[in-house]
Amino acid sequence: MHIILVEDDVQLGEAIRRALERLAYSVSWFREGNEALRALRDHDADLVLLDLGLPGKDGMDVLTEARRLRVKTPVIVMSARDALDSRIRVLDAGADDYLIKPFHLDELAARIRSLARRVRGEAVNRLEAGALSLDLGTFDVTWHGERVDLTRREFALLQALMERAGRIVRRESLENSLYGPDNVMSTSALEVLVHSLRRKLSHGAIQTVRGFGYMVPREPQ
Amino acid sequence: MTLPSLRSRLLVLIVLVLAAVLLPLGILSAKHTLEEVDELSDGRLAQAARTLEVLVGRIGIEQLREQRSARLLVPSVSNHPQELTVQGRTFESEVGFQVFDRDGTLLLATENLAAVPNTRAADGAFEDIHKGKYKWRMFTLIMEQEGVTIRAGERYDSRHEITRALWLEHGLPTFLGLPVLALLVGWAIRRGLRPLESLAGALARREPGSREPIHLPDAPLELRPVLLALNDQIERLEGALERERQFSADVAHELRTPLASTMINLEDAMASAQPDEAQAALEAARECLVSLARRTEQLLALARLEAGAASGPRSRVDLRELALEVVEEMSPVIGTGGAELSIELPDHLFVNGYGVALGALIRNLLENAFRHVPHGGHVELSIRHVERGALIEVTDDGPGIPAERRTAMFTRFQRGVDTQGEGYGLGLSIVKRAVELHGAVIELLDREGGPGLRVVVTLPLA
Asked: Is the ipTM, as predicted for this complex, more than 0.90?
């Protein structure tokens, strides 16, 4: 899952990026309003974490403009402004959630999961395909009732595939989810990941569509 | 005397003034009237005596003398009222007369004066006599040829009745009129003071926190300066309040952001499975706390600056001493920054100002410079006396600030985008506030001969 982080404060930006990457998200971090808007418009992110007090272009303007440009990516606004009218204005301008600084990492993660869930149209934090089950809150993966230990990247890849189980997911989209849009990963990195996933699950769990992408079938064997 | 209400004050003053003018006028005019009445009555008395003289002449003295035995006592005039009119009112005037012969024999007299002896007054003389409980005004006329004295008299109380009537006629309306006048004056005052009432109403109706000026379309000339001053005051108060609100919002932002980073880092460290990841997150958390501490310090400095400006007078500050103190205080920061500081100070340079604020100004300029120069860079502090005043100049060879962003830098808590990550934010706010406090001028310029920032503050001299 790819997240665009817009935060001008270096320390906070670093902290959030590090924490989110540990939670198996790929993060693109921007510190300036105009850059953030360009990224929102051009990249296919799954979620945006937006600070309000930004140099260049205020976060509120970034949000308004993005919504005007029909960017539908879910947006969580993070702000130190706790006034009620500020929160209302932000939500009315098209934000999906509002976090007041300082916030807990757990809460941020939970809200990200909650929003991702809503986008997928699901009500629980669990992705399932046949005997394969993936808990997004605890990062527990079970295969035929057995717990499977996955690395962060493996988990992120499996999540990206299972979010669209039964459909082919393009290679670029997977790379974007895993490494962000500016990745310079070699094409084999993805293949290596798929290979190790198959080893931990089964060969049939992930199907390859040559030259296009991968797919987790609805009932993986 | 202090009266709580402007209206009653005005009322009392106006009535007092009216009374002070009307009373002496009334007394003067009463006195004048009395004299007139006296003169008029005296004239009438003399007239009566002369009429009698003519009558006596007609009858003939001899005839009167012959009648001595049957001395005629004319009945009192009270039975034959002599009428006197004052503006349509009828007064009875008690008058009488006497006719004495040469030898003092009473020839003829009205009953009321029959017992009054001849005082032998001169011809044409007026006199006052007492008969019983009454006082009489007498006029004496001597018929030289016949040797007869004619005396005509009038009781004073008759006269007084006329006077009283005149008093009532003129004085009473004035006395009765005074309360009416007071009522009317009261009404007029209330009407005249209505703008004050509407001002009070407008003030009472104001929403607290509203910055709307008070608008009175029919404000009289006298109230306009009051209104102007009031609106000015409101504006300034609300401005101060607004700044206060802005300040707390800014403070919240300034402190919450590093707090958030600290929390995220700590929680990340706790959740990390790998020790090296946890270590890195903890390290970052510590960095965040350091930055939190620094911002807290700066906020305190800013608050102290504001408080210091509100109280306490300016004093003579030696910029040389001040700069040395600041540099000494900052030596740990300067030592670890990996950048070099060069200082150029005058012998002594005195300005009239706030030592704390000026110290904060120099400290923050230096701190900003050190935060933005690369390792091995240079920072230069120069203080000198120029024609316009005292010059404080801090130059660094960091990345500088693009010209188009310089104005925005002074907005409170605005942070510049820079490579080192730390902003100018609070530091420049403090500098700006100190500059404002001293009526100084600050300029952000390019360093001469290369990239870098040159900040020049010009202080007016003491």
From this structure: no
